[in-house]
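job 3f2a | input accepted
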Amino acid sequence: MVRLTTLSLALAGSLTGFAAAAADHHEETPRAVAEAWLDAYSSQDFAVMTALMTEDTVFIDPTSFNIDMVTDRIEWRGPEAITAGVSAWGINHGRYTVDRSYEASGRVIFNGHIDVIYGEGENAQAFRYPITTIITVEDGRVAEHRDYTDFNGASRIAVPH
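job 3f2a | predicted structure (161 res):
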């Protein structure tokens, strides 16, 4: 099982270097770009996310379109709309656990779950969402982030310390 976590200092250092080299992603593999994107998204590092996007990057979750009690429709285009939409959720951070991943034709598919922590301290709440995430990479940048989230299968979990 591959575990992607955002809390290690080594990873944080590699993301900083990755963001600094954002202008020259052509040498990065789609998997490397997709994994850096997921790590930045999980840690809510909007500077790195922005560096990895194109002007027209799309962030979409078609499974959110009729889940009014949980979230507004998730369908955004461009760095400003995407970072504003994601930041509006009030996520402290998330942690992907990937059970299976594969790559083909510039798309990297991650299947597993994401543990999402909302808020901080005594008010923090955590939920586990089964999820499939497909990251499309074009010319070394994230062109699309597409989630298929099992909102109905989400469960409340203990807040990790």
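job 3f2a | The chain has four helices and eight strands.
job 3f2a | closed
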